[in-house]
Amino acid sequence: MTPGIKDLSFSIVFKLRAISPYEFLLTAHKPAGWSLLTPFKMFEDSTLWTGMRLNSGKIFGWKLRSMGTVERAQDTSYGVFSQKSQHEGEKRTLRNCCMYAWH
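Request: output the structure for the sequence above.
Response:
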């Protein structure tokens, strides 16, 4: 493994339903100039890859992808990756971060 790179082998997936009209990429790019979760993000095939550190100091990788269109909003999938499995309290915190940041 490369120094400074972590193996994030555990994952969970949250799904949130957006209300039409909803544009995932426009929301992710935040045209007002501020970053959604972090300025260090990458887009690839309409998928947003980013990371987040919680107040506990734990680091999580994120994979966000919308399955719908502007007119027909569907579930947005939020994949969360970490070094260890999360207990229910952490899962709740991560889900709340998704809901706060995106809706």
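Strands lie at 10-17, 42-44, 47-53, 59-66, 75-82.
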